[in-house]
Structures are given as C-alpha cells and as structure tokens.
Structures
1.
Amino acid sequence: MARIDVRKTYKLYIGGAFPRSESGYSYEVTDNKGKFVANASLASRKDVRDAVVAARKAFGPWSSRTAYNRGQILYRIAEVMEDRRPQFEEAVRQSEGGSAALARGQVDAAVDRLVWYAGWADKLAQVIGNANPVAGPFFNHTAPEPTGVVGVLAPQESSLLGLVSVVAPVIVTGNTAVVVSSYARPLPAVTFSEVLATSDVPGGVVNILTGDAAALGPWLAAHMDVNAIDLCGVAGSPELATSLEVAAADNLKRVRRAPAAEPDWALDPGLSPMTAFVEQKTVWHPIGI
Amino acid sequence: MGFEYAPAPESRSIVDIKASYGLFLDGEFVDGRGSSFKTVNPATEETLAEIAEASDADVDLAVRAARRAFRGWSRMSGKERAKYLFRIARIIQERGRELAVLESIDNGKPIKESRDVDVPIVAAHFFYYAGWADKLEHAGLGANPQPLGVAGQVIPWNFPLLMLAWKVAPALACGNTVVLKPAETTPLTALLFAEICQQADLPPGVVNIVTGAGGTGQALVSHPDVDKVAFTGSTEVGKAIARAVAGTDKKVTLELGGKAANIVFDDAPMDQAIEGIVGGIFFNQGHVCCAGSRLLVQESVADEVLARLKRRMSTLRVGDPLDKNTDIGAINSREQLERIRELCEIGEAEGAERWAPACDLPSSGFWFPPTLFTGVAQAHRIAREEVFGPVLSVLTFRTPAEAVEKANNTPYGLSAGVWTEKGSRILHMASQLRAGVVWANTFNKFDPASPFGGYKESGYGREGGRQGLAAYLKGAEA
C-alpha cells in the first residue's frame, strides 16, 4: 500500500513563531490550474496588530546590530534558501505555473538577490551618506538610519522573487517588516518564513501574514506605530492605493507608491528600494582644542 | 546684569516699501485677480503694505508660466544655469543690509539675526547650489539626472527669506522652475527677491511668486500641473498635503514641526551648555521648528543649570527688532502670540511652574518674554505640543537610557541636542536619538552643505547638502 504523505499546515509567521490566524479563518489556496493545494491562514486585523507589536519590539535590537552582522544574516538566508531550492521551485511552479526551468530561474534569482542585498549592508551608508564641509569649525556628517517598522504589501504575481525583492531591502537597512504576502500565491512566502526562522534572523524582524492586501492594507496603512509602507501589492488598483496613501498620512508614513503594474523583478533594483526606507541623520560637533 | 544700553537702531531708510504689491508672474509684477491683505510690522502693528492675494486663477497663471519656462530652463546647460544662481547669490550679498532690515521689519526678528544669520546663509545657499548645477551627474543620484518639472513651494513666516533660499536654490540648480508662496504675514522679502531675479535677468517664469494665505497654498499644491511639492510649516498642514497628493505622481518633501530635546549631562561644558540652551530656545523668539524646546537636564546638576539659566535669561534684551542690541524681537503675529499665551496658561493649569525674568515690553506690537517652566511632566501639553515661541519646558533625568526614552517620547523627530564632554556618550546618544539633526555641544547651527529634515511626524526629505538635490531630481531618493 502506498504511503500516505504528511501534509504541512501553512501558518502565519509573527515574532518568530508560527501561529494560526487568531481569527480562526483560513482560505483555500489552489495551484495555477485551480486544483486545491492547502488551506492558508487568513490573517486578520488582530494579526496585523500583533505583527506590528513584534516588529516594534525587534526594531531596537535589529537596528543596533552592526551592518556587518546584518549582512552576514542576509547571506545566511540565501544559504538556507539555496539548500531548499527544490522545495521552492515546486512551490513557485505550483503558484505561478510555467515550466520547471522558469521556476528554477525565479528561485535562482531570488537567492542571488539576497546575496546582492547582503553585500549592501555595510556599503549603503558609504554611498548615500557624506561628510559635509560646513563654513565653520564643526565636524558634520550625514548617514542613513532605518525608518522603523515598515509595512510591506508584497507583490501579487511574483510569489518568491518579488517577495524577496521587497523584503530584503527593508531589513538589510535595519528596519523590521510586517509583510502581507500575495493573496492567491501565498505558499512560497510561508516556506520563506520557515527559512527565516532557521537563518539567525531574530524573531519579529520579518513577520509574514498570508491574506488579502485589500483587507489588511487599510489596518497597516492607518497603524500609528508603523513608520512606512510599501504599496507594491496593490499595483493596478489605483483607488485602493490612493486610499492607503491617504490613511498613511495620519502619522506621515514614508510611502513607496504602488506602480501601475508589477515591475520586471529581474531588473537591477537600484538603490531606491533601500533609500525609500532610511532616514538621513546629520550630526554636528564643534572642533576645538 | 546691571548694564544699561543706549538705543542702537539700524536705520530703516535703506528699504523702500511700496504701498501695495502685486504678484510676480512670468518675470513681471502684475495685479492679482483676487482680493488683498495687509502685512504689518509685528513690533509696532503698523501696516507696511497691501499685498495681492492670489486666486486660483492667479495660481494657474503662475503654474502655466513656470511650465512654459521649464522647457528652456531645463535644457539650458548646467554651466549656464549655475551662472544665474551665482548672480543671484552676489546680488543678495550686495543688497544684504536691505534684505536684513526688511526681514526684521516684516518678521519681527532681531536685526543681529537677520543680518548675521538669515541673509548670509541665504547667499551661501545660492552659492552652494549654483555649484551643483553643472555637476549633477556626479552627485551619485543616477547616471542621467533629470529635473521633475514645476515645483510648488510653500514656506513659513519664521525664516521667510531663508526658507525661500532652501526651496528655490536646489530646485533651480536641478533645472526645475518654481511657483513659490511666501507666508501671509511675511511676504516682503520674497517680493524683493523677485526684484533680484529681475536684476539677475533670470528668464521669465523660472521663478514665480504668488502671495496669499492657506487657500492660495492649497491651490498651488493641488494644481494638477505641479510635479513637485515642497512645504515647510505645521505638521497638521503637512498631513493635509500628504493626503492631497495621494494617488498622484507628485514628489513631496515636508519639513514640519518639532519638539526637540536638548539634553544636558552632569559633565557638560557648563558655560557653553547655558549659551546653547538659551540659543536653542530663544533664537528667533523660539519661532524655530528645530528649537530646543524641551530641556532634559541630569538631576544632579539641575539646580545649578536652572540657577545659571535664569541668571542668563535675565540679561536677554527684548524689544525693537531693529536695535542692534536686541536678543529677542517681536512675536510674528497676534494669532501666534495668542497661541503662546494659551499654551502657557495651560502649562500653569496643568501644574507646571512658570518663570520669566522681569522685563519691560513695548506697549504696542506683539511681545512675549523669555519664559521657562519647571516641574514639567511628559504628559503636559507644553512638553508635547510645539509652542513655537520663547518658552522652555524643563524636565530631568537620571540615566542616559532615561534621557533617550524621554527625548524620543514625541511624535516629532526633527532635531536634538546633547551636552557632555564624553565623546563615546555623544556618539551613543547621537545614534539613539530619533531625529534628523543632532547637535552635540552646539545647537541651532545651519549650513547649506548640511542636510536638514525630520524623522517621524517632522516630515520627510532633506534640504541642504547633496541629499537636498534628491528632492528635485527624477528617480533620486537618497
């Protein structure tokens, strides 16, 4: 008799733990042919709030790590992902369809992107910060610091490469993240959270909620303890994006606006995914004997 | 103490204030289509001039003029644009005394500040950004940096000409054209700047100035053909602007309110610290978004600091802004004076103890003595809200961790001060304070090369320095 396989329960990832949604709700996830794959947790407003609390708690220690250490940890994420490539390839193919080669390409690019961002950890300040030659006897310099807790509405289509491309720049700069995954394609995000949990990423630095960006986005955008928001996940819904941007103004969140359509994630990201979520701090001190 | 000073007024004969002013559109002064308002000297309540209030139609004309001018200005080589900005910088220096006197008359700030701080930094700002105009591809902000288009800029009344320079200089250097709205109570130096643009032969439409109040500003920032909005002012209006531009492609920088902590440790260089505290809160009558309005003093030296601070405050001279010995000038408007009075009354009602030195205030005009509150709790409104006046709240702390906690306990995050002789503690504090500018063993220093701007609800984007270019170039966010 054939062995019956042991199926995985796909859960949320909050504060380093894997809870179900406190709401008790789940939703059916199908593969790209419409066949049932799993029930994913349907995150609620309360889950968003719990995730923000976890992210805020993690922000102080994470932002205080050395840039070198954050780079090491991002590289570790890449290593662990590389190790689980077949699993990610299957998850991406199941979610996005297409050939095995196409899925493999997505996973390769996602791992490579993590390695790329890992290297930025101890370089960004050197590229976008500067010494300022002021007209007086003062030491004066400007360097970037993380903005704080960043809400990330992850892309709906690119379930892994897109996800990694919006999460890595947020955390490599020292921010912590509350991520809402693709609604229809959430499973690679859940598997990614299992990688995070085993890659020396402190609990709470990345929190991943599976669910509906249109339902969760308003809570995240209006949350007064969230400092910034990436609206990528509502690309193509300009009215929703506008309402989220309006809500974000309540505490002047930094907003990375939604593009008209999902970008080509294979392109060089440039610096803007990182610079969108850093603050520039200028420090003065007199010079004297 | 005990010194008597004879009056030493700066002559106002150098300025020629017209009875009425129109708008500056497309290189010419024109009559507005809307109504008008008066600008007054806050030190005397004398009406200085009648100012046109730009209507929506006027704003539209200004934006159209800026759009027409954009084509030529943005295609002009950076080398040539630079020369216009250098010209403007030089004319500002040449007419420096005139600008300083006019600023003090319209704003109420002491002549020694307008003459020695505002106007020199204004000229320096144009010099600094002039030099960038032909070096943008080396700024590290992308390979082929391009201007955004028409910038709508709305500035406050506390540093009228300086805020104009912060907005106009980087915008023009990057190849944008601008429509600027000065504050309702302080339009005169902006209108004199328009004349300077004429003297510099700046192409028509590159700089347009629309005077007016909130409605004019609203029309400008929400105009569909404005590509960039730059605002300095209150957090409340900043939020309204952020909502107004939601869903558009407009790029926005907001430089908003603050409630800065000025932290004095027990090993601080005490003489400098006292001067820094005084300069931090009483500079420009406390009408400074980055003012050090919350003094956090280590408990062990609190009594000494307070005693010395009170002694120093007793020597501050409040009065005629044009007197060269004046330390604290006039409050900019009756409305602002009422707000300061109200918050101070609330401070007393909430249980804080109010102190001000004996001080003769002129009988007409808007005045408020340098004031401090002790026994202030973090929950008190005078410790949370921006007073925007010469009012200092004093709180104490025991440990560095407590100082950080209290300093960061505010929705604002514009600036902070730290006073200690211990280098490692300075760097630790500087890294922990959630504020865009940290002054260590100094306070309220400004320079065109030094980026300035806030964290959290103090706004976003930076003005000054290389970072200040990013606000006016496509795709640049550093």
2.
Amino acid sequence: MIHYNKFTLANGLRVIVHEDHTTPMAVINVLYDVGARDENPEQTGFAHLFEHLMFGGSINIPEYDEPLQMAGGENNAYTTSDLTNYYIQLPAENIETGFWLESDRMLSLAFEDKSLDVQRKVVSEEFKEHYINKPYGDVWHKMRELAYAKHPYRWMTIGKELSHIENAKLEDVKAFFFKYYRPINAILSVGGNVTVEQVKTLAEKWFGDIPSGEKYNRNLPVEPPQTAAHKLEVKANVPLDALYKCYHMYARTDKRYYAADLISDILGGGSSSRLHQVLVKEKKLFSNIDCYHFGSLDAGLLTIEGKLVKGVKMKDAEKAVQQELEKLQGEIITERELQKVKNRVESLLAFEDMSLLNRANNLAFYELLGDAELMNKEFENYEVVTAAEIHEEAKLLFDENNSNTIYYYAAN
Amino acid sequence: MNRTIPPPIKDAVEFDITLKPYEKFTLDNGIPVYVMKSDEQETVQLELVFPAGSWYESESLEAAATNFLMKNGTGKHTAQEINESVDYYGAYLNRNAYHENATYTLHCLTKHTEVLLPIMQEVVLDPAFPEDELSLYKQNQKQKLAVNLLKCDFVANRFIDKYLFGEFHPYGRVSSMEAYDALQTEGLRAFYKKHYNYNNCKIFVAGNLPPNVIPLLNKYFGSTQWNGESNLIKLDLPVQSAEEKKFRIFNDENGVQGAVRLARQFPNRYHPDFPKMLILNTIFGGYFGSRLMSNIREEKGYTYGIYSQIYNFRQISAINIQTEAGRDVCEATIDEVYKELLRLQNEPIPKEELDLVRNYMIGSILGDLDGAFQLIQRWKNLILNDLDENYFYNNIQTIKTITAEELQRLAKQYYSPGDFYELVVI
C-alpha cells in the first residue's frame, strides 16, 4: 500500500506527494502527457529530441545540470511512445533547487539554436548506436510498420528516419513546447523525506504562476482490426536466423490487458516458462526465446522473439512456436500455473516499489492512466483473472489473422 | 519572485554521512553472516559469495560455466524442477561469476524465504552438472558470442583489456568458441569441489527478514562441513601488457560508428592515490557534467555518451575512457580526449567546478546508501576486499577536502596522453 496525497494547482497542474521519512533523499518526477504517438508523421522522433532540448537551459537559468549537481542531485529523463518523464533525485534538504529548475523549464525554455544544433547530432549518434550499428537493430522499425497501418505506434520513439531529426527547426520546437509542455498537461510527483505542507508551499511558489495552457485532447487515428496475417522476410549481416511474431493486444486500461500480460508470462516469464522450457531446453530449436510486451497505453503488441539454433529451419521453428500457442488455445491452464504467474506479478510489484524513484514515477504514471489510486489496486486486477479468461484471450490473441511475422535471415 | 536567483542549498561538506553498521552472526560451521535489517518492504535478499571467479581457472570459462550450471540440475531435481519451484514463488535465484568471486543470490518476498532456502541449498551443495545441460550451455553461449562479436563495443572491450593485462591474465582473458568447446563436466565438478566450500563461503542478507533467519541459515548452510575444507592460495599473477600503444581495427566494413577506448593501468584501491583519483575521474569523465561529456557530447555532438571509469579490480586497476562515436569523428574524439587530459595537467580545476563535484559525489553517495539492499552492497564491497568502514569514511573525507593542487599533481602523474592505449573498433 503506497500512501500519498494529491492536489491540483489553479493552473491545472496535478501534484502527488508521497512521504517517506526513512530516507534522507527526495525525488521530483515531472511527467508530460506527450509521446512519440503525438508526433506529426513527417516529423517523427520529435518528442524524444525535445526531451534532449529540455536540458539545454531554460528562460531564467542558462544551465540545467550544474545547479542541480551543486545541490548534490542527479537527474535523467526518458521518452516513450506514450509519454515523456523527467526525474530528479537529491538530498531532501535541497529539494527547492529541484522545484526551481523544473518550474523554470516548464515556464519556458531558452530556445537556443546552438542547443538544437548539438542535440540533433547527439540524437543521430543515439539512433546509430542503438538501431543501425547493432545486429538486428532495425527489426522494430520494420515490425512497427508491418503491424500498424494507421496508429502512430507505427514509428519508433527515436524516429522513423534520421532525416526527420536532422531537419528539425527551432520554430517547430517552440510550437511543440507551448502545445504540450503546459501545467494542464503535466503531473508533478514528489516523494521522500518531505511533507505534504512543504510540497504544497513549494509547488504554489514555483509552479503556481505558470500559465495553464490549453488542455491537449488526443485524437489519434484508430488502428482497424487486422484481418489477415502480415509476413516479412529480411536478410541482413547477422550470424543467426531469428523469428519475431507480434499480435495486437489491448490498451493499458482495458480489463483484458491483465489476462494478456499473464499470457506473456506463461509463455516467456522466467526459465520455467513454456517457450524456454519446450523450445530451448527440450526441442533445442532456439538458443533463446522470449515473450513480452511494452505495456503501452494504446493497444500494443504481444511479442515473441527468438534466435534459431544454427541449422534449424525457419519453418520448423515457427511450427514449434505455433504448437505452443495452440496448446494455450486448446487446453485450460492448471490452477498451479495460474498461481505461479500471479505470484510472479506480486513479487515483481513488491521489488519495483522498493525504490523511491519508482514509487514516485509510478504514482505519476497511474495518475496519467486516470487515478494514482490505481497503483494500489494493480495487483487485484491480476488476482481476479481466471484460467477460463486466459483460455478465451489466448484464442483471440493468437488468431492467425492477428499475427505479424518477421523472418530475419542471416545473409551468409 | 526572481527566478534567476537559485534557492539556498546545503553544501556537501555539511552532510554527515554515516554507514549504518551490519549485524554479524556465525553459523555453527563457522560461516560468517552479515545482516542488514529493514522493516519497510516485504522483501529479502540473500547472497552467498565464494572465491570462485575466473582468477582461479585452470581452463578458460570454467568459473562462469560452473557457476551457471550449478542451478541446472542437482542430485534430486532437474533444472526444470528447480526453475519451476523458484518461479512458482515469484523469486529470483541469480548467479554471477566475476574476476575474484562468484555468487548465488536469492531475491524473494519475506513470506517465501523458508520454502526457498532448501532449493538454494540443493543448488549450492548438491549440483549434478548433467552432460546435456553442459552441451546446451556451450551451444547457446557460442550463439550469443557470435552475435556479440558483431558489436564494435563488445569487441573493443575485449581488446582493451587484453592490451592492459595480457591474454593470460584473468583480467585480460576473453571468451572464445574454442574455450567453450573445450569445457568438460569433470573439469566443472572439480572446480566446484574446490571453490564452493563451507570454509570459504560468506553470506550477506538484507531486507525484511523472517525472525528465524539465522536458525534457518544454520539448518541449510551451517550444520555440516559441506564440500570439506579448501585452502586457496591467491598470489598476484604476472601482467603482460601490450608493447604497442595504438590500434585501429575494422570489425564491420559497413559500421556507422566506432568504439573508441583509451586506457592505461592504474594502481589498485589500496594505493593512497586511488580514492583521490575517483574524484579526478569524476571531473574528467565520471558524471553527466564531466569535461568529456561537456566537450564531446554537449559541445561537439560527436557521441551519445562518453565516460571514463576506474576499474575496481583487486590486483591492479585501470583507467578506461570509452565511447561510441560517429565513424568519421572517431579520430577527432581522440584528439579532444587528449586535449582534456592536458588541460587537467596544465590548469588547476576552478573552485566552483571542484565544489560542484564534491557536492555531486556526496549527494550521490547519500542516495546510494538508501535502503538495506544498497547498504549491504556497500558493506559487501568493503568486507570482500578486507576493508572496513574507515576506508569508506576516509574516502568521504577526501571528497570533502581534496585541493585543486593535489588533483593537478595527480593529473600530471596519471593523465599523460602517451601512457594511454588507444583503440578504435569500427
């Protein structure tokens, strides 16, 4: 049970406070309700590039990092398809430094050409490091385009192509900022050795006078149900053949999300999971195989990916995967196996909650989902899933017409 | 309100950092147990540490393979049965082999500790090393290696350690297809017998522990002289570093980035310059605001990130600067690294920068000491290196008091470009 208090400033900024007096530290987490899915298809990668620019100085403070480090603090940020999240950890005595820095960059950035010039290059190198210069690094570009026809999940957070980042202009940056980075579209979550009263005072003082901005009402293209299997063959300079299969699942707030999440754990969670046990250990067709999804807010992809043992034929490997999926569609799982995956969720949530930073971050995330209180109800959502529901969902999910497959072949 | 004026801060030197002491117990057979309790969360971490790292190998990869395969089948249960039991309780039974030590670590909810300990006991005391598990391990590790060998950063890390320490030293030895092929179950069994013994085991536990945790540990690990006594002698091994200093390697003709490494040997943590160099290293390349990041990422945009680290190896350490930079700016990156080294040799660090780094480092240590798992980690590092809390407090004192003159002296001694190995792997 995570305790917290919640209030909203007059400008619409939602504030969550999680007191924890066992630590000398404090964390400040600012979540903006904008991610790569909100981008213009001709300017992909923008939300993430923008995240970099948030460190390039704000309207009254030329350097973001220096004063924070001077106060003994550390920070970072990440962008996903759904949201952008910034976080700070620092000694609780110096928490006001965090409020000062975060509020000033919410008020306005400095918008300097130099910062944009450099960060375009930095992000290009990030793009190369993670997606071009790595074996199999391009597979998610291809998979997203294969699986999504309309929804903006069809491009990656880093961007569809390098040129979109290289062509970014300062006026686009400004427009993006004033559309999305407003108090009305943000959630501030503060945790650690602080009090609610203290946070109220500091939030009013530093964030209270920032213009509210206009509420961003998301109206994204809806992905139509997939009606035929999609397949793609790729040949690349990699040493091993690999198989990727993705199935459209449910939005994060859909009740059926929890059954699908448990299915991914039955198939791919831990060394005792079905895919690992049967396909790696018993049949020796794959050297590794996983099943996972990204927990995205709109309907995401349940993914199975594995590397084939040298000499194994792709169609034999795929057939064996198929058999495991059919097993899940055919037979109801035992109560013990269901209990196992629920126990795994319970444990995972407990270990996640150990870190103050995770707790503050998750409170903001669940508030974005609709209510911070959802964080405390999360395990119940898993507990109520039945074996019969798993059975039903497996039938729907693993329908051949809902499948997207990439056969990734070693070129030599 | 004037937003250009920063709020007042409390300075690092004013923070009074204390390292919360552990409790120590001794099991009936003499195994020491170091305990850090907390009652905040319902979680437990329980770690067994053995002198079973690659240092002690007579055949390459023996330590890692032994450590990995202990969990894959015991006298009573198959790998699958063991995995099933651990997973059923949502627990994690992880294993790792490092240069000096190897570990088995259990993470679980407090309420499941008692039922999981017998499984952990079986894995540590009664591994079977089945033939088929070894052959599967070899096959899958070789496949993984084949993929990794295409990555410039992976390849660069192998080469740079070889230049620093020589391929026959455990710090410079690397995996290979041939070494995997040569692994035999008899070798692993012998390695296991010699290195996983009651008399060289240490146990570290942390978290919200069951009240009977010590009796439980006694029951499963403390009652017998399992695997008998083993007296290991650990001597320093000869280091054979490369003569040549500059290397350029083409691993992938189509690579769009190069992995850049600049490295030199450095004394180990027992040398008086070591804690001081941790500070100079932070300034140079150890945090986001470092000289290297400010210049090469934030000013030039050559890379997504560039860092300098000091290895925590026991016999001998090294300074290693690493980055992945655009293919056409690798050489320019190296030039800039040298410029930054020379700048630290030639100009004293400005007071403001030094104050900032003091505060940053103290804040970071304060954050690292948050929670029982982190605290036991900190103690473990001291205990396994035969150090005590004085070492920790001395380091803090050094951060608070070191002068710019002293740092410049260190730069002159250790930051001469000519002393560094230079490697680019594209």
